[in-house]
Amino acid sequence: MYLKSIELSGFKSFAKKNTFEFNSSISAIVGPNGSGKSNVAEAFRFVLGEQSIKSMRGKRGEDLIWNGATSEPRANRASVKITLDNTKKIFDIDFPEVIIERVVHRDGLNEYSINGSVVRLKDVLELLAKAHIGASGHHIISQGEADKILIASPKDRKSIVEDALGLRLFQYKRLESERKLQKTFENIAQVEALRKEIAPHLKFLGKQVEKLEKTESMREELVTLATEYFKREDIYVSFSRAELLSERKPLNETLEKLSKESKNAKRVIELESGLSAVRKHRDDLTRELGKLEGLIMAEERVIENEKRLLASDEFKTVRLKDIENLYEEVSLLSTVTEVISKLGNFIKDRKHNTDSGLIKEVQTKMGGLKKSQVELEKSLETAREKEQEITDAEKAIFRIMSEENELISKLNLLKVREDKLNLEEEEFKRDLSEVGHIVGTSALHFKGVNIGDEKLAMEEDRKKQQERKHMIEKFKIRLEDSNISGMEEVHKEYKDTSERDAFLARELLDLDKSAETLSELIKELETRLASEFDSGLESINKEFGKLFVAMFGGGEASLVLVKQVGRRSDLGNLERSDLEETEEEIEEGLDIKVSLPKKKIQGLVMLSGGERALTSIALIFAVSQVNPPPFIILDETDAALDESNSKKYGDLVEILSKHSQLILITHNRETMSRAGMIYGVTMGSNGISKLLSISFDEAVEAAK
């Protein structure tokens, strides 16, 4: 047995939980009209994924939920749970049982689960398709749908047959492949659009990179040239500064020494002011010495004259003359006292003169004069020595001043050279900064560069350095015009854009390969579908013919493949009840051709109600025989049959039960007699369906 049970809870008239156990190959569900028997068949449709509420006699999802009664409040949800035996692994799932449950809420939300795990409707349908339980419900014939396959359109009839043949899974795969292919084409279009979008920018970036790459060689040349230039310039500045220092040091030392020699300018001024005083003092001494020498010579002459006079008469004459002079002086005096005093002094003075005292006095005076003369001569010599010293000092000062001026002139020249060197150093640093800004820090590592003999580099003609600088300026201008400063950003953007384009190209290639693979898969699936359908249709027609003959005692019946213009339907959305038409194409379908024995009837429209019922049953059973589903639900498909045909129907049911489990909803006594288990369904005054396990006789009575 494949079908083990079905459980209804809150579904339509089954307000409370009811469980149907199916332990027989043929089970019958009986009950009076309106008891809720057909709700069981609809419960099977519901749990197996039916999306058309209309096919379950409702308008909205909440119409499937118990709506309440006086004794029982309405339910908020309806659930149906079906248990299937999987010991023979007819389902592609590693469980001995497959429990499928569907729940619908009043807000319309549907929930699906397989063995307690929440799944999608798609997962349920694919699982059932592998067991030949399709979405078309060919294995579930609801009340009044016995001739469903007869009244269906050729296209729908073909779909029912495909479903019965187990081709639905391949159709799902084809539709899934077609969706994937369509999505792939959309992705290809998107990728191509993206590549088209970035192509101009990538081209622009490529030109920029090409331009930058051309400047890269200039940059490298600039780095090489600048490195050598800066290295040589650094050597020049360092050596020049050291040279200036070595030249300035002895000059400063000499200047300091001259300063010490001259002491200070103030002393020189003092010496200059003292020199006039010394010269005046010397001149005064010279004059005094001349006077003294004149006095000495005069005294010497006096002594000689005195000596001569003493020895001659002239002396006497001079004496008499002195007396005469005295007399004249005395005669002028008014008093005797004055005369006596004058005479005494005269006598005293003459007595002295007469005893050679004058000579002695003069000699003494001469001795003093000579002593003064010696002192004056010493003073004069000292004055002369001092004058010479001052003169020498003046000469030394003039010499020092001359040397200082010369040293200051040299120092000034050194200062000019230093100022020039400072300017050159500032220019060097400025050039270094500008070049570093253009080419980066690579030019700043010149100190580690070896250019050979540094002394020779120092002695190099500055003209060559100027030529290097001129070349550097040219490179700077060209590189600045090339916007080399944004090189890294451009390279990065170009790299990123190129990588993205390459990725898109690879993606496009993969999508093309995927599209090719999907196209091949679709072709393979279509080929297999066509092959399987053709062989299955042949088998169905073979069984259909046999059963038709059995039902009618002769005649012919077959399914014929026809083509008509229609619109392709989108079967990809498995959640939709209405198929959405998309595009026109030539559609294939199945038409039914019948020929009754002893009647000139061609076509279904000419059949009576009973004939249509028998034809439908024959076709349904034929379809089921070719690829038997695990179970078949037949809801009063035998209602239009008379007693004779009911027996034929019962025989066919038993034949079908050998391959499929049958659940029969019936009022027919003959059909009930073929069932191994019978369930009775009743409905009380509260509108709630109840399940009863009854005997055959009770079933017959209940069916009345």
Structure description:
With 704 residues, the chain is an alpha/beta fold. Among the domains are: 1-133 and 633-642 and 659-704, 3-Layer(aba) Sandwich (Rossmann fold), CATH 3.40.50.300; 263-396, Orthogonal Bundle (Helix Hairpins), CATH 1.10.287. Helices cover 62% and strands 14% of the residues. The protein has 16 helices and 14 strands. It has helices at residues 37-47, 121-129, 148-151, 154-164, 168-262, 265-310, 313-332, 336-354, 357-439, 454-459, 462-481, 487-552, 609-626, 643-657, 669-673, 696-703, and strands spanning 3-9, 18-21, 26-30, 77-85, 97-105, 110-114, 117-119, 140-141, 556-570, 580-595, 631-635, 661-665, 677-683, 689-693. A six-stranded antiparallel β-sheet has the order 2-1-4-5-6-7. A six-stranded mixed β-sheet has the order 8-11-12-3-13-14, with helices on both faces. It has a two-stranded antiparallel sheet with strand order 9-10. β13 and β14 form a beta hairpin.
How would the blueprint of this fold be written?
Layout: E1 3-9, E2 18-21, E3 26-30, H1 37-47, E4 77-85, E5 97-105, E6 110-114, E7 117-119, H2 121-129, E8 140-141, H3 148-151, H4 154-164, H5 168-262, H6 265-310, H7 313-332, H8 336-354, H9 357-439, H10 454-459, H11 462-481, H12 487-552, E9 556-570, E10 580-595, H13 609-626, E11 631-635, H14 643-657, E12 661-665, H15 669-673, E13 677-683, E14 689-693, H16 696-703
Parallel strand pairs: 3-12, 3-13, 8-11, 11-12
Antiparallel strand pairs: 1-2, 1-4, 4-5, 5-6, 6-7, 9-10, 13-14
* Whole-angstrom Rg: 74 Å
Low-confidence stretches: 569-582
Largest sheet: 6 strands, antiparallel
End-to-end distance? 30 Å
CATH topology of the domain at 1-133 and 633-642 and 659-704: Rossmann fold
What is the residue-mean pLDDT, rounded to a whole number? Answer: 78
User: Judging from the principal axes of the Cα atoms, what is the shape?
Assistant: rod-shaped
Corresponding CATH superfamily of the domain at 1-133 and 633-642 and 659-704? P-loop containing nucleotide triphosphate hydrolases
**What is the share of helical residues?**
55-70%
Strand elements, count: 14
CATH top-level class of the domain at 1-133 and 633-642 and 659-704: Alpha Beta
How is the largest sheet built, in terms of strand order? 2-1-4-5-6-7
Identify the CATH architecture of the domain at 1-133 and 633-642 and 659-704: 3-Layer(aba) Sandwich
Order of helices and strands: EEEHEEEEHEHHHHHHHHHHEEHEHEHEEH
Tally of individual helices = 16
Structural class of the secondary structure composition? alpha/beta
Question: What percentage of amino acids are in beta strands?
Answer: 5-15%
